[in-house]
């Protein structure tokens, strides 16, 4: 197993539905979820929240040499996306032409298979993003 | 009143042309394209399966209906290409919609008609008052053995229908099923690809069941072919539904809007439901729709549907036409990779 099954299971809500943490004290949004707000420290009040599935690409990189388990997907795009609530996350970008994957492009979330341990192993599903051509 | 309160469709972006498959196997591409009535088919990418297609379609259905997913009391996913042989897709869909955990859920298998079987169950549950809203999904990443006739049409796609009793956009007036033990197409446990009985899949299988299913539901509804603005039949290729329609007395015009297989291939459990979605995309209040699915093995589910004025208030998140138009062609090599048809994949 690349990842312990209980860990994969614990991440289902977070990865299926972009549930991040919101700090009620300073208003910051974090993804993936955090236990402590780095700005407010002990004064922070973190709560789970469904984050918007839309955002904009801040930077991107095309991966030609992948980590184990992603060899058949190369070349694929990774991007740092800023969601509409300003949380930033790292994600694969799929279903998009190469010339569309660039900083400033609008993206929206899609539900995809992230990895599987083997043909007989458990499948981890979760979010990826795709470019919305002409999206606002 | 109970019926459809929202629907969604998912079709992968990749397409392979019938002629490209024919080129690899030394067949006459133009001849097969016209013979089957399928010019290209939708191909799921390496990170898509029937669960991801089911989730994408279901999310669109929930957005269209504008309901709180927690209102969904039942989720049934029909497929013959489940990612897990044992472990439900329905629970993945329920969690991805944040509809659980207070709901009934199960996967259905009845070749190409498991999605409509789920729709019948949801209708029964809503009419009996057991649930407020039920979700029925048909989604497949259909398998075809390389070189087999099925490979020209076996495609990927899915559709999801929410059935409820409030803000109904299309009332399901009645439903009827015709079921017999007919071994025309099957896949045994652990077998990677299905087998079929060639021409036997026609007369005693598809046509007998679709025609009987259609006649049965029209008898129950006391209707005739001319009462319908649209008819949708299961579409394993572009020709079978036209012939079934002709046998029943439907015109080509009545079948046209719901015939999507020529552009995306046979999406199995999704096929008749994507056709129904294509019709609802364009339907007007008062339109009457006949929808008849077919699943090998064998059976047909017929639905008599009337579109309500509520359809003016709800638009699909993305139309079937838009999904069909959003495409990227791949060659046979990439198709083999994405569908993992090489043993090393």
Task: Give keywords.
heterodimer, A: mainly beta, five-stranded antiparallel β-sheet, three-stranded antiparallel β-sheet, 2 helices, globular, B: 345 residues, alpha/beta, Peroxisomal Thiolase, Chain A, domain 1, 2 domains, nine-stranded mixed β-sheet, 12 helices
Helix and strand arrangement:
The complex is a heterodimer of chains A (136) and B (345).
Chain A: H1 5-10, H2 12-17, E1 19-23, E2 29-30, E3 46-50, E4 54-63, E5 76-83, E6 88-93, E7 106-116, E8 123-131
Antiparallel strand pairs in A: 1-2, 1-3, 4-5, 4-7, 5-6, 7-8
Chain B: E1 3-10, E2 14-17, H1 18-24, H2 29-36, E3 40-43, H3 50-65, E4 72-78, H4 89-97, E5 104-108, H5 114-128, E6 133-141, E7 156-164, E8 170-182, E9 185-186, E10 195-196, H6 202-221, E11 230-233, H7 240-248, H8 252-256, H9 261-264, H10 271-282, E12 288-292, E13 297-307, H11 320-325, E14 328-329, H12 332-338
Parallel strand pairs in B: 2-14, 4-5, 4-6, 11-12
Antiparallel strand pairs in B: 1-7, 1-8, 2-3, 6-7, 8-13, 9-10, 12-13
Tell me about this structure.
- Chain A is mostly beta strands.
- Chain A has one domain.
- Chain A is 9% helix and 41% strand.
- In chain A, the strands form 2 sheets. In chain A, strands 6-5-4-7-8 form a 5-stranded antiparallel beta sheet.
- In chain A, β7 and β8 form a beta hairpin.
- Chain B is an alpha/beta fold and 345 residues long.
- Chain B has 2 domains: 192 residues, Thiolase/Chalcone synthase (Peroxisomal Thiolase, Chain A, domain 1, 3-Layer(aba) Sandwich), CATH 3.40.47.10; 138 residues, 3-Layer(aba) Sandwich (Peroxisomal Thiolase, Chain A, domain 1).
- In chain B, the strands form 3 sheets. In chain B, strands 5-4-6-7-1-8-13-12-11 form a 9-stranded mixed beta sheet, sandwiched between helices.
- In chain B, a hairpin with a 4-residue loop joins β12 and β13.
- In chain B, α1 crosses α2 and α6 packs across α7.
- The mean pLDDT of chain B is 96.
- Classes of the chains: A mainly beta (136), B alpha/beta (345).
- At the A-B interface, α2, β7 and β8 of A face α3 and α4 of B.
């Amino acid at each position: 197993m690349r990842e312990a099954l209980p860990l994969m299971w614990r991440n289902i809500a977070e990865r299926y539905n972009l549930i991040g943490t919101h700090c009620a004290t300073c208003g910051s949004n974090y993804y993936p979820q955090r236990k402590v707000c780095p700005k407010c420290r002990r004064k922070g009040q973190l709560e789970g929240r469904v984050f918007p599935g839309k955002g904009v690409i801040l930077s991107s990189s095309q991966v030609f040499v992948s980590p184990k388990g992603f060899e058949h997907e190369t070349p694929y795009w990774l991007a740092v996306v800023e969601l509409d609530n300003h949380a930033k996350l790292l994600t694969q970008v799929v279903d998009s032409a190469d010339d569309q994957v660039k900083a400033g492009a609008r993206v929206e979330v899609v539900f995809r298979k992230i990895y599987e341990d083997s043909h007989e192993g458990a499948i981890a599903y979760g979010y990826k993003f795709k470019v919305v051509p002409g999206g606002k | 009143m109970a019926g459809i309160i929202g629907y969604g469709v998912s079709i992968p972006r990749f397409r392979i042309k019938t002629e490209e498959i024919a080129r690899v196997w030394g067949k006459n591409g133009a001849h097969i394209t016209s013979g089957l009535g399928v010019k290209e088919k939708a191909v799921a990418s390496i990170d898509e399966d029937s669960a991801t297609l089911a989730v994408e379609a279901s999310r669109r259905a929930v957005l269209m209906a504008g309901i709180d997913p927690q209102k969904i009391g039942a989720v049934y996913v029909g497929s013959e290409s489940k990612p897990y042989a044992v472990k439900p897709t329905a629970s993945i869909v329920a969690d991805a919609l944040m509809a659980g955990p207070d709901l009934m859920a199960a996967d259905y298998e009845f070749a190409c008609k498991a999605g409509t079987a789920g729709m019948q169950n949801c209708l029964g549950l809503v009419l009996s008052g057991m649930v407020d809203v039920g979700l029925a999904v048909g989604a497949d990443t259909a398998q075809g053995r390389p070189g087999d006739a099925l490979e020209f049409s076996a495609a990927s796609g899915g559709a999801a229908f929410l059935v409820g009793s409030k803000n109904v956009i299309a009332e399901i007036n009645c439903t009827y099923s015709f079921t017999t033990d007919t071994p025309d197409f099957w896949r045994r446990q652990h077998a990677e690809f299905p087998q079929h009985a060639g021409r036997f899949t026609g007369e005693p299988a598809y046509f007998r069941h679709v025609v009987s299913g259609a006649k049965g539901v029209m008898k129950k509804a006391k209707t005739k072919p001319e009462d319908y603005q649209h008819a949708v039949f299961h579409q394993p290729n572009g020709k079978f539904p036209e012939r079934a329609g002709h046998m029943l007395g439907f015109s080509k015009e009545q079948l046209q809007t719901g015939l999507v297989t020529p552009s995306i291939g046979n999406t199995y459990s999704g096929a008749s439901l994507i056709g129904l979605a294509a019709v609802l995309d364009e339907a007007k209040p008062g339109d009457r729709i006949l929808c008849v699915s077919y699943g090998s093995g064998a059976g047909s589910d017929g639905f008599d549907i009337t579109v309500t004025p509520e359809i003016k208030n709800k638009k699909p998140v993305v139309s079937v036409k838009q999904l069909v138009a959003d495409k990227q062609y791949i060659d046979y090599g990439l198709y083999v990779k994405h569908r993992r048809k090489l043993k090393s994949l």
